[in-house]
């Protein structure tokens, strides 16, 4: 179950008098609309110097995922505050949805880098072609002849009449080339 959704939040600086202010759009991954609005104001305050008190949100809408049946490669560009410095980073993930790839990213950042969700700013998430993948973790999955061997197979009886609680001999569950010859 994907707990993150992608939202497009559009806002602007509150116009004073007859002047018109430009619309500022941002795509944000958040669990709900309230968190999406909060992250929008956090990022806009840093980039455009517009606070929540001096701005308006025009619309918040969830961006639906298209074609979530096949697995795709996603590149994630981020900036996060570590304990000592601000770090720019690029990571690659394979998932069926963009939100799923971002979830994998957050889980990896919290585990591997001890980065908090609030310290991470996602700059861009983009679907990338297989030829453009760089990371070894992603490249190993792109082979057409990839196999996932099951070395520890537990034999099950073909029907109920052959099922017993105790066997006369312990089953050999390790399937290797030497044992089959």
Automatic annotation (TrEMBL):
Q: Which UniProt keywords apply?
A: Ribonucleoprotein, Ribosomal protein
Q: Which domain of life does the UniProt lineage start with? A: Eukaryota
The membrane spanning regions, by residue number, are none
Q: Where is the Large ribosomal subunit protein eL20 domain?
A: 4-126
Pfam families (UniProt xref): Ribosomal_L18A
Biological process terms from the Gene Ontology for this record are:
translation
- Where is it found, in Gene Ontology cellular component terms? ribonucleoprotein complex; ribosome
GO molecular function ontology, one term from the record? structural constituent of ribosome
Q: Which InterPro entries match?
A: Ribosomal_eL20, Ribosomal_eL20_dom, Ribosomal_eL20_eukaryotes
Q: Which family does it belong to?
A: Belongs to the eukaryotic ribosomal protein eL20 family.
Q: What is this protein called?
A: 60S ribosomal protein L18a
């Amino acid at each position: 179950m994907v707990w993150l959704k992608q939202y497009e939040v559009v806002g602007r600086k509150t116009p004073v008098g007859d002047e018109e202010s430009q619309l500022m759009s941002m795509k944000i991954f958040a669990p709900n609309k309230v968190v999406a609005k909060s992250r929008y104001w956090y990022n806009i305050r840093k980039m455009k110097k517009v606070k929540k008190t001096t701005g308006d949100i025009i619309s918040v809408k969830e961006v639906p995922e298209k074609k979530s049946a096949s697995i795709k490669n996603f590149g994630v560009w981020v900036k996060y505050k570590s304990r000592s410095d601000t770090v720019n980073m690029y990571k690659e993930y394979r998932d069926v949805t963009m939100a799923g790839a971002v979830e994998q990213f957050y889980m990896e950042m919290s585990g591997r880098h001890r980065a908090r969700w609030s310290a991470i700013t996602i700059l861009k998430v983009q679907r990338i072609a297989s030829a453009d993948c760089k990371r070894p973790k992603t490249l190993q999955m792109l082979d057409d002849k990839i196999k996932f061997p099951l070395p520890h197979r537990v034999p099950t009886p073909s029907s109920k009449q052959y099922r017993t609680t105790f066997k006369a001999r312990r089953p050999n569950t390790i399937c290797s080339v030497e044992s089959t010859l």
